Amino acid sequence: MTGSPAATSTVVRVRVNGRAIEMLVPVRLTVAELLRDRLGLTGTKVSCEMQVCGVCTVLVDGNPVSSCATLACDLHGSEVLTVEGLARGRDLHPVQEAFMAANALQCGFCTPGLIMMAVALLEDHPGAEPDEIREWMDGNLCRCTGYAPIETAVTVAAARMAATTAPPEGDQ
Ligand code: FES
Ligand code: FES
Question: What is the model's pTM?
Fold first, then answer.
């Protein structure tokens, strides 16, 4: 490092929830810091900062990523989706609706990460089975719910998304 601004900062170009962002950022800025502190997207939470708890999960090009452990400069050219980008107007994403219907949250701190993790699975694999869901979600920690309502919510969302993406009868 030379100590010059060019050595410690870089321009990142990225789309966040469909919005094009171009910003000069410190090379050590994390994605969580970019989202929360620079873009005001505080739906993404941070806890362990060690890639252990899953609360900071966002999607980068459709894949779940720990935003606490990913550098913003590594996003360059990517598409980022956070919990704020899921709803379409007043229509919540099926995973969000299922979490509400199943009372799958108490304090809610873990919820955005859990929802983004579930979305990553079900957008690719609607109709995932309960054992697949359990295995996929096991890196996301929740201290309140005991996990059963979360499992119910994701299972219900999986069934609903499978039903809406299934080809019409006769086309199978
Ligand atoms: S805050 Fe990122 S994994 Fe825990
Ligand atoms: S609802 Fe409180 S940590 Fe999960």
Answer: 0.92
Ligand closest to CA 31: 1
The SS3 assignment for 157 reads helix
Q: How far apart are CA 167 and CA 36, in angstroms?
A: 39
Q: Which of 85, 104, 139 delimits the end of a domain?
A: 85
Please list, in sequence order, all residues whose beta carbon lies within 8 angstroms of the beta carbon of residue 154, skipping any fewer than 6 positions away.
Answer: 95, 98, 118, 121, 122, 128, 133, 137
Give residue 170 CA to ligand 1 midpoint distance, Å. 46
Q: Is the CB of 112 under 6 A from ligand 1?
A: no
Q: What is the pLDDT of residues 118-172, one digit of tens each?
A: 999 999 999 899 999 999 999 999 999 999 999 999 999 999 999 998 766 655 5
Asked whether residue 47 is assigned to any structural domain, the reply reads yes
106 in contact with ligand 2, CB cutoff 6 A: yes
CA of 114 to the centre of ligand 2 (A): 10
Residues 156 and 98 in one domain: yes
Parent domain of 155: 94-165
Indicate whether residue 39 lines ligand 2 (CB < 6 A). Answer: no
